[in-house]
Amino acid sequence: MNKVSKAYIQLHIAVLLFGFTAILGDLISLSALVLVWWRVLITTISLFFLIKFGKTLKTLPKALILKYMGIGVLVAIHWITFFGAVKYSNASICLVAMATASFFTSFLEPMILKKPFKPYEMVLGLMIIPGMLMVVNNIDVSMQLGIWVGMLSAFLAALFAVLNKKLIDNTDAMTITFLELGSACLFISVILPFYFQTENASNFLPTQSDWFYLLILALLCTTLAYVLSLNALKHISAFATNLTINLEPVYGIILAVFLLKENEELNAGFYIGSALIIFAVMVYPYVKKKLD
């Protein structure tokens, strides 16, 4: 098996785990900010035992460490908005909104990585827009805020994916994950006291069921999935990565139907719009093979 094929397998496993993330966000009773804090704390602790902490960091320039930590802040805000979208709507709607990441990536990747614009990537990114319009027009008004928060989360996901692509070859994926998620934990720790000035601090501690879901979320859907996706990014472009990650709605929506019964909240128009978005994912490898 060549490196590219292996990378796609790793990425699809990561996407399946990412698809389960929104389901867990719906099941966990904590607010989005507190949920993300516990998630990155548990994940960072787990990574501390997996990396050669002192030896690896000594070889990295301080400027590079700070860049990874800056990306970690973007990751933190992305996850807060991601779970915020789940709380404002539901898991399926949040996952569909995340599919717009490929649209944002089609513009961000050439700008940041100084690569030529590829018209077909922008066309495929734009193909997602009609599907998004159908989704928005076929959900209850009370859930539409979740779409916009989810699209903000998608933009941040595209941004940190491209920035990671730029810096991915400077060290191993495990170290990058530790630095980014560790800085995400520090960032949220700084803003938590301000958050609890307006929110009840008693909502900080997870319930017994929350602990169970948090451990799955942190260890499998974060530590394992994040490292797999970063390893894959070494051999696949950021655009191809985000288009593959658009399969997250497929896995997530199927899980939401069976585990959360969200099909009872959503109509046929929503699923048709979702299918249009998924079509852009499926057609990408064939278009790339023909035009590159």
Please characterize this protein's 3D structure:
- By secondary structure, this protein is mostly helical.
- The chain has one domain.
- Helix content is 79%, strand content 0%.
- It is built from 14 helices and no strands.
- It has helices at residues 3-27, 32-48, 53-58, 62-88, 91-98, 101-113, 119-126, 128-137, 144-167, 173-195, 208-233, 238-245, 248-259, 268-291.
- It is globular.
- The model has no long low-confidence stretch (mean pLDDT 84).
Number of helices: 14
Averaged pLDDT: 84
Estimated helix fraction: over 70%
Q: Work out the radius of gyration.
A: 18 Å
* Count of folded domains: 1
Silhouette: globular
The N- and C-terminal alpha carbons lie at a distance of: 22 Å
- The multimeric state of the shown protein is single chain
**Unreliable parts:** none
How many beta-strand segments?
0
What string gives the helices and strands in order?
A: HHHHHHHHHHHHHH
Main sheet, how many strands, which sense, barrel? none
Secondary structure topology:
Layout: H1 3-27, H2 32-48, H3 53-58, H4 62-88, H5 91-98, H6 101-113, H7 119-126, H8 128-137, H9 144-167, H10 173-195, H11 208-233, H12 238-245, H13 248-259, H14 268-291
Which keywords apply here?
292 residues; mainly alpha; 14 helices
In short:
By secondary structure, the protein is mostly helical. The protein is built from 14 helices and no strands.
